[in-house]
Amino acid sequence: MSATAIGPEATVGQRMRGEALRRAFLHQDGLAVTAALAALDQTGTLARLSAGAALPVGELVAGAAPGAVAACLRAAHSAGWLTVDNADPDPHRATVRLADHSPAAMTALAGYRMVWEAVEGALDGADWADGADVVARLAECVPVVQRARADVAGSALDPQRAEIVARHVEGVLATAALPRMANVRQASGAEATAILCALDLSDGSSPTTLAGYTAFFQPIYGLIGSYARPILGVPAALAGGAALTPDDVNGGVDRRINVVASGAAHRGYFQAANTALRRIFDEQPLADQPRAIVDVGCGDGRWLREMFDTVTTRTERGRHLDRHPLTVIGVDYSEAALDVAREGLRSAPAVLLRGDIGDPAAITASIAAATGLADDDLLHVRAFVDHNRSISGVDDEAVRPSTDADPEICVSPDGALLSRQAIVGDWTRHYRRWSQFSRRHGLLVIEGHTVAPVELNGRAGGSHGLAFEFYHNLSGQGPLRWESFQAVTAAAGFDRSHLSLTYPNHARPTTSVQRLVPSAA
User: Fold this and answer.
1) Are 200 and 178 in contact (CB under 8 A)?
2) Which of 4, 96, 166, 326 could form a disulfide with 149 if both were Cys (CB 3.0 to 4.6 A apart)?
3) 471: which DSSP letter?
4) 445 forms bridges with which residues in the sheet?
5) Burial class of 303 by CB neighbour count within 10 A (0 to 12, 13 to 18, 19+)
6) Preceding peptide of 230 cis, ω within 30°
7) Are 265 and 448 in contact (CB under 8 A)?
8) Rounded CA separation 43/39 (Å)
9) Can you list the alpha helix ranges (DSSP code H) found in 182-296?
10) Which one, of 170, 222, 192, lies nearest residue 1 by Cα?
C-alpha cells in the first residue's frame, strides 16, 4: 500500500484524505519503531550506541532471539535512528551506529521509551479479546503520550523530523485502539473520546473533519494493530533473554482484526488484478481459456467471488458459459476460513479445499479428485500468501540476485536469522514447484515487497513498508525485494506479461500485481 503525493492544486477533500492516509502510515510505523527502540533500550544496546559505540550486528544477534533483534535493528534503521556500515550481503558483518547523538534526538528517544513503558504497563493483564478493556486501559496512557509529544515539539529537533516522531509515539495508541473501536465518527464513551481527542479525531463532543477521512482508513490500522499484543511484548522478552520465535508472535495475533484489515487494505490491488483477469478472459480464444480459477489462500472468499462476478458479467467468456462453464476453487489452510468462504460462494459453481501454499502437488491432486480438472485447466491466483510460509534455512547456489548492503532478513521457525542466500533459495524452489503445475495458464500474483531502510526513511508517511517489514520479520514470513522477486520468478521459468503492474510505479515498489506466464525459453 502506498500514498500518492498531493500537490498544491488539490482540493481540501483530497488534502484531508491524503493527510489521513499519511497519518495512518506514520501511526503504524510508530508501533514498530517504538517497540524496536524499546527493545534496544531494554537490552542495553541503545545506551551503548548513545555513548558513541559502533556495534557489530554479529554480536547483537548472538543471543537467544537473533531474528527478533535483527528485526528491531532493521526498523530503527528504516526510521533513520541507526546507520549501518555493511559492504557485505551477510547481515552479521554489518556495524551499526546511532545516527544522531544530539540532545534533541535523546529527547525523542526518551519519548519512545516513555510511551512504551506506559502502554506496556497499562495493558499488563488486559483481556485482548475484549476491545473495550484494551481501549479503556490505553486511555490511561493519553497524558504520557501528550507529554512525550510536547517534549519533542519543544526540542531542537528539525520540525519535519519532530512531527514524524510525534506521529510515531501517538501511533502506539492509534494502532492498538482504533481497530478495536467502532467507527471513529460514532465511537462514544469517555475512554474512546480521550484517545480520539489525542489523535485529533474529536474535539471532545463531536468528531473532527479529519475523523471523517480517517474512518475510511480505520480498518487498515489493524494490519499491524492485530499484532499489537505480541509486538508490545518484544522488548520485555528480549530484556529477559528469552528465545522469541515466530510461533510466539503468531500466537498473539488477533486474526479477526487481521482479516478485516487485509481485506480493506488489499481492495485496490484486487481491482487491479481483476482488470488483468478480464483481459485473460477477453483476449484469448474461448477454447484456450482456463476452465477454473484457483485462489490459493482464499480466506473468506471475497476476492474469489469478485473474480467470478467479473468474468461472468464483464467478459466475452461470461456470454458463453453454457458452452464454456467456469469453476472457481478456493484453497486455504484454515478450515474456519473455508467455512466462511463457502457461505459467500453459495450461489457460484465453487469448490472449497484445504491446502498448503507450499505444496502445489497436493493441491493439484485434490482439485483433480474433486473436479476432474487437470493442472492445464487451471489459472492459479493468490494475494500476499507466497511469503506467508516457513522459509527453510538451506542455501541455494543456483540463483544469486544482485547483492547490496541492505539485504532482506527473515526469521526461521526456531528464531534464527537466515542468510539472504537461504531466503532467495527457498523462494526459488517454491516457484519452481509451482511452475510444474501452471505450465499453461501461469499465475496471477499479488505480492508485497521489502525496500531498503534508507529508502523507507525517505518515504516516511508515504508507505506501509516499515511496519510491513517489522511484523512480517517477527512472524517468520519472508517477503522479497522487487529485484529479488523478479530474479526468483525468472529462474523458476516465468516471464512477466504486459498485464503486470507495480505500486508505486517506480524502480522499488512495495507491491506488485504480476501476471506470470511460462517462459518461452
Assistant:
1) no
2) 166
3) H
4) 382, 514
5) buried
6) no
7) no
8) 6
9) 190-198, 209-217, 222-225, 228-239, 246-250, 255-283
10) 222
Q: In whole numbers, what is the pLDDT of the chain averaged over residues?
A: 91
Residue 126 is given by DSSP the state -
Q: Which of 352, 364, 474 is nearest to 68 (CA)?
A: 474
Cell triple for 404:
547490496
Crossing angle (nearest 10°) for helices 465-474 and 228-239: 60
List pLDDT tens digits, range 188-221: 899 999 999 999 999 999 999 999 999 999 999 9
Residue 131 has pLDDT above 90, yes or no: yes
CA 169 to chain centre: 20
C-alpha–C-alpha distance, residues 37 and 92, integer Å:
19
Burial readout 130-167 (b: 16 or more C-beta within 10 A, e: otherwise): ebebbbbbbbebbebbeebbebbeebebeeebbbbbbb
Tens-digit pLDDT profile for residues 221-280: 999 999 999 999 999 999 999 999 999 999 999 988 988 898 889 889 999 999 999 999
Cell numbers describing residue 230:
505480541
Neighbour-count burial for 19-52, b at 16+ CB within 10 Å, e otherwise = bbbbbbbbbbbbbbbbbbbbbbbbbebbeebeee
Residue 321, strand partner residues? none
Coil, strand, or helix at residue 247? helix
Are the C-beta atoms of 102 and 91 separated by less than 8 Å? Answer: no
Q: Which residue has the cell 503486470?
A: 500
Compute the Cα dihedral for 181, 184, 185, 190 and give only its sign.
Answer: positive
| 8 A C-beta contact, residue 315 and residue 348 | no
Which letter, b or e, does each residue of 360-370 get, where b requires 16 or more Cβ atoms within 10 Å of its Cβ? beebbebbeee
pLDDT (0 to 100) of residue 406: 62
> C-alpha grid cell for residue 156?
531542537
The pTM of the full predicted model, rounded to 2 decimals, is 0.92
What span, in angstroms and rounded, lies between the C-alpha atoms of 361 and 338?
20
Beta strands in 313-468 (DSSP E): 327-332, 350-354, 378-383, 443-448
